[in-house]
Amino acid sequence: MLALVVDHDVPAELRLGETAEPVPASDEVLVEVRAISLNHGEQRGAIFNYGELRGVADQPAGYVPGWDAAGVVRTAAADGSGPPAGSRVVTFGPSGAWAQLRAVPVAELAVVPDGVDLGAASALPVAGVTALRALRRLGFVTGQRVLVTGASGGVGRFAVQLGAAAGAHVIASVGSAARGEDLAELGAAEVVVGLEGVEPGLHGVLDNVGGPQLAQVFGLLAVGGSVQSIGATSGEPTVFEPYATVGELRSLQSFMMGGGLAGDLAVLVGMLAEGCLDPQIGLRGDWKDVASAVETLFARRIPGKAVLDVS
C-alpha cells in the first residue's frame, strides 16, 4: 500500500512510498483511509497515554506517522465489537494514520453519518478532543469567564466553539488582530491580542502558548480557578516571580489528552452533523502535497486545521 513515510532526505522529511499493509488485532478494524489531518505534535513530538511520541525528525526512515484519519471500514473487528464493514469512521492512534490502510482499535473511533464530510471529520480527534477534555476540567462554565490562548490554532478554535456552546463567556487571545478576525463568529465574546485588556478574576484558562504568558494568565485567575496547560507553542520557558504561586487557591494543571476517544469523538461528530461545530479547515489538499502543507501549517499561514485527501 502507499503511505507517507519518513525520509530524512526530502522536504518535510515525508514522501509517498510503498509499505506493508497493517494486520489488525482482534479488537481492531481495518480502515480504508480517505482523509487525514495534520497536527504540530506529529512533527515535533508529543505525549499521550502511550508515552512520549517522537516527532518525524526523530523517527527512522520508512516509519508511517499520523494520528488523525477518517475513512471506511474494510474489515470489521474479529472479536465482533465495533462497526461493520462499509461504515464511515473517524479514527485516532499514535501512528499509522497517513496511509491507504489503517488498523485502529474500536475504542479509538466513531461512526460518521453519511451527510458528514470525511475530511471535516478527520480534523476532530486530537484538536477537538483535546479542547473538549480540557474544557471539562474547568467544571461548570456557564456564565463564567474562560480565556483561550492561541485561540486561532486548531485546538483553540475548537475550544472557543465548545466553550461558547457550554455557555461560557469566552475570551479568545491571539497573536495578532488579523489572526482573530473570525473568532467572534465562532462564539468568542471578546477577542484580544496577547492579554491586552483581560481583567483578573478568570474562572479558567485553556493555555496553548506557554512561556511568559503562562505566568501572566496564572495571575489573572479567580480564587479556585485553574489553568490547563495544553501546549507551549511559544517555545519559551515560563518563569514565575517570587511568591507568585503563594496565596489563595489557584491551580496550574498539566494536561494530557489520553486515549479511549470513542465516546468523545461521537459527541463531536454529532455536533458536526447538527451544524453546531465547524472544524475550521484552513487548508484542504492532496496528500501528495504534504511537504507544502506541513510548511504552511508550521509557518502559521492558515487558521485552524490542515486536511489532506488520500488519493
What is the average of the pLDDT values? 94
Q: Counting H and I runs of at least 4 residues, what is the number of helices? A: 7
CATH class descriptor name of the largest domain = Alpha Beta
- Please state the CA-atom Rg, rounded to the nearest Å: 19 Å
Which structural class do the helices and strands define?
alpha/beta
Give the overall shape, derived from the CA principal axes.
Answer: globular
The largest β sheet comes out as: 7 strands, mixed
Percent in helix: 10-25%
Q: What's the CATH architecture of the largest domain?
A: Alpha-Beta Complex
CATH superfamily of the largest domain: Medium-chain alcohol dehydrogenases, catalytic domain
- For the record, the count of structural domains works out to 2
Kindly identify the CATH topology of the largest domain: Quinone Oxidoreductase, Chain A, domain 1
Low-confidence stretches: none
Order of helices and strands: EEEHEEEEEEHHEHEEEHEEHEHE
Instruction: Determine the N-to-C terminus distance.
Output: 12 Å
Beta content comes to 25-35%
Walk me through what this model shows.
The chain is α/β, with parallel strands linked by helices. The chain has seven helices and 17 strands. The protein has helices at 40-44, 118-122, 125-137, 154-165, 212-218, 262-273, 290-298, and strands spanning 2-6, 14-18, 28-38, 45-48, 51-54, 68-75, 88-92, 101-105, 109-111, 145-148, 169-174, 190-193, 202-207, 221-229, 251-254, 281-286, 305-309. Helix 4 (154-165) links the parallel strand 10 and strand 11. Helix 3 (125-137) packs across helix 4 (154-165). The longest helix has 13 residues, at 125-137. The protein starts with a strand and ends with a strand.
